[in-house]
Design goal:
This protein has 2 helices and 13 strands. The chain has 168 residues and is of the alpha+beta class. It folds into 2 domains: 33 residues; 115 residues, 3-layer Sandwich (Rieske Iron-sulfur Protein), CATH 2.102.10. It is elongated, with a radius of gyration of 30 Å. The mean pLDDT is 92. Bound molecules: FE2/S2 (inorganic) cluster. FE2/S2 (inorganic) cluster binds next to loops.
Length: 168
């Protein structure tokens, strides 16, 4: 009769196999968990850069053409272009452009911004951000929302302002 330990019917040999199996299972699951760290969770988002079409086609002033699709306004001045990211610096709502008042107004808590993006009124603590803009060799406006700037003195220079002279 083989030597047994409790519970009744479990042999010493089977008990050792059970122990070794548990140890191997434990080490394997630990190694698998460690290997998982080599494959981090990555969220692939669409590029923040987009082609806004020919610069020549934009009229002077604030264009709302890309507001719904890209959440930016494109502003053309006598000297060139800049873009304003349509995200209120208070809590992130999307302001609206009121051409008759020459200002952006946020519907959430009433912040007002000039066409430069500066705060005129309301709880917003900072000016609206500008996005990087350049004019490609094709004459198209290329806007990069991943590069933003809100500080005056910086936002008026490259890459946040693109010089442009209209050709007739
Ligand atoms: S989110 Fe615009 S004023 Fe509050």
């Amino acid at each position: 009769m083989p030597e047994t330990i409790a519970p009744a019917g479990l042999t010493r040999r089977n008990f050792l196999w059970l122990g070794w199996s548990a140890l191997v299972g434990f080490l394997t699951s630990g190694a698998a968990a460690a290997a998982r760290f080599f494959f981090p969770n990555v969220i692939y988002e669409p590029s923040q850069k987009f082609n806004a079409g020919p610069a020549q086609d934009y009229p002077m002033g604030v264009s709302t053409k890309w507001l719904n699709e890209q959440r930016v306004w494109i502003i053309r001045t006598e000297k060139g272009f800049y873009t304003v990211w349509a995200r209120c610096t208070h809590l992130g709502c999307t302001p609206n452009w009121f051409a008759d008042q020459n200002r952006f107004r946020c519907p959430c808590h009433g912040s007002n911004f000039s066409s430069d993006g500066d705060v005129i009124a309301g709880p917003a603590p900072k000016p609206l951000y500008r996005c990087a803009v350049e004019i490609a060799s094709t004459g198209d406006l290329i806007i990069d929302k991943a590069v933003i700037e809100g500080r005056s003195g910086f936002r008026d220079k490259t890459p946040f302002f693109a010089n442009f002279k209209a050709t007739v």
